[in-house]
Amino acid sequence: MSAAKPILISGGGLSSLLLAQSLRRSNIPFKIFERDASFTFRAQGYRLRLSTEGLEAIESVLDSQTFQRFWDKCGKTGGNGFTAMDAITGEETEHTAPEALSSRGGKIVGIARGDMRKVFAEGCEEHIEWAKNVIGYELTDSGVVAIFSDGSKSIEGSMLVGGEGIYSKVAKQVSGGRLKVYDTGARGIHGQAPTSAFKGLGEGVFTVRDKTRPDGAVFIITNVRPDQMDDPSVEFGWTMGGQPGVIQVPNDDYSIVGKQAADIAKSLVKNWHPRFKPLFDEMIESEAAFWKITCSTPSGVPEWPNEPRVTVIGDAVHSMTPAGGIGANTAVQDSALLGKLLREAGGYKPGVTAAYEQEMRIYASKAVHQSYTTAVSSFGVKIDEATSATV
């Protein structure tokens, strides 16, 4: 790495780590500040479906060998494509051919968030500072420093990239409060079970929906991959979502994991068809975790006066609902774009963040709008920017 001032990155999530990979390959120094104590500090969340755009962005950043390792960890599902089913009767209600969701080789490509994070972190570990919670920044005469929750400050960097997710303090500061994340009121539970629990479904991507509840609909979505079906060491995951008010998180505490989350999931499906019961009866209770369904301003990424030395990526700038599965795919496009502009500039240069933000706003605003529109019909959510609560 060169002796130039490093690019400072707050947050060690997917978009931050992929940006770090791009900087590493460009020989541009960087430092990552992650609030958690390690990558295994908390649950890694649900499985991600990768779009053509997402895969292309990742491939443009990683070297060929690393991308091959990444690709080998991805599941590739063909089978029946996407199938919607009635949770009570067990009957199919909708079917979409696999081509509609496929991103490469006619297959639907997905990967566990934790596996994705491990690959993106390869070669970057020594540049990560753990238990460093960034709450803001200060500009200096020739750079920027990050401010941590304990009152200490980072070394001076040439630039700061806020990638610390929906609660990003960097996003709020650089945008002057224009970047907002709204609480949709909808909640979810992530669960996992041995592959044997999924055999009753077959291969494909499935959503199972229960519309009979008086308090609102609840559903799960899962991806069943045939190449791992008979491997007892593998677990498949499912993601449960509920309309506002259906899933109640105890004390609104999203750090709760394990049996409490598992028991609530089981209580919500007690009337479901027997073919779906193994997903819950056999679930690994320790892996169950709650999550909040949030969304950025539905009308798109707002504009703010550009600060040449500070910008934001991923959920910090465009949080999305899980509807459509495009949040992570948009985040890795941020990493690829900003990394490319920094490589071409040879590191920080005035104008880099402005160019990035101009292009990012176009594709990210389209993605947020698509995600929100789908969530309105899927989750029954509605964001009123004048009255809805922010996170």
TrEMBL record:
The record's listing under Pfam families reads:
FAD_binding_3
Boundaries of every FAD-binding domain copy: 7-370
Quote the Gene3D superfamilies the UniProt record gives: FAD/NAD(P)-binding domain (3.50.50.60)
The protein's UniProt keywords, in alphabetical order, are: FAD, Flavoprotein, Monooxygenase, Oxidoreductase
Name any one GO molecular function.
Answer: FAD binding
Q: Is this entry keyworded Lyase?
A: no
Keyword Nucleotide-binding recorded: no
UniProt cofactor(s): FAD
Q: What is this protein called?
A: FAD-binding domain-containing protein
